[in-house]
Amino acid sequence: MRIVVFQHLGVEHPGLFRRLWAEGGHDWRAVELDEGEPIPTLDPYDLLVVMGGPMDVWQEKQHPWLAREKAAIRHWVEGLGRPYLGVCLGHQLLAASLGGKVALMARPEVGLADVDLTPAGQEDPLFAGFSPSFPTFQWHGAEVCGLPRDGAILAGNSACPAQAIRVGRHAYGLQFHTEIEPSAIAEWGEVPEYCASLERALGREKAERLGETITPHFPAFEAAARRFDANLTRIVQTLAQSEGV
Length: 245
Prior knowledge:
Elements (H helix, E strand, L loop, with lengths): L1 E6 L8 H8 L3 E6 L14 E4 L14 H16 L3 E4 L1 H9 L3 E17 L1 H5 L9 E14 L4 E6 L7 E4 L3 E4 L7 H8 L2 H17 L1 H5 L3 H25 L3
Parallel strand pairs: 1-2, 1-3, 3-4, 4-9
Antiparallel strand pairs: 5-6, 5-7, 7-8, 8-9
Helix pairs in contact: 1-8, 2-3
């Protein structure tokens, strides 16, 4: 696969997926939008992956490149009709770019949380091999609260009903961080916006122990990331075969 990744912060990269993509022989490039890097011509790519970031989808005055990014996402999903994976902010940008709604949550969701697959999620190829309920790592203060046209909720929980969505045939958004690596906990904790949401969600004592709380779960997170990667690769390859690429 040829993968292009939109990043909004240096420490919010594809994480575990970088290793999995290398193992699979896939080519990928990162575009650091927050540093002013222009969006390239998207035609050569098979998959667009959009990562997280401390900004919100409506902050176009503070981050003018958000408008260009939303336009690129619309072109990719509606114009080119190619597979998309959005994580956290990238999940919210998928919804916002295509007519859905995103809003602040009453309280941030940070740390371990189970998500439950909906009937649509249990039938979706992205979640093939997943249990109906599985643990995830969360770190977000906004949520998708209105789906775009042709949108479906694939997973949710009581804190955030739209934990995973699909728009159309193969544009996916995940609110949770399936790409999480051990180094991310300390790195994200140094981002002021993330630090504030961490303490607000967990309190100072639990926030300071987040790393040790999460550490035993990394083998399960890696297994889930491998399953997601394999499922998404099959989705991309099936589309390419159907189009005779």
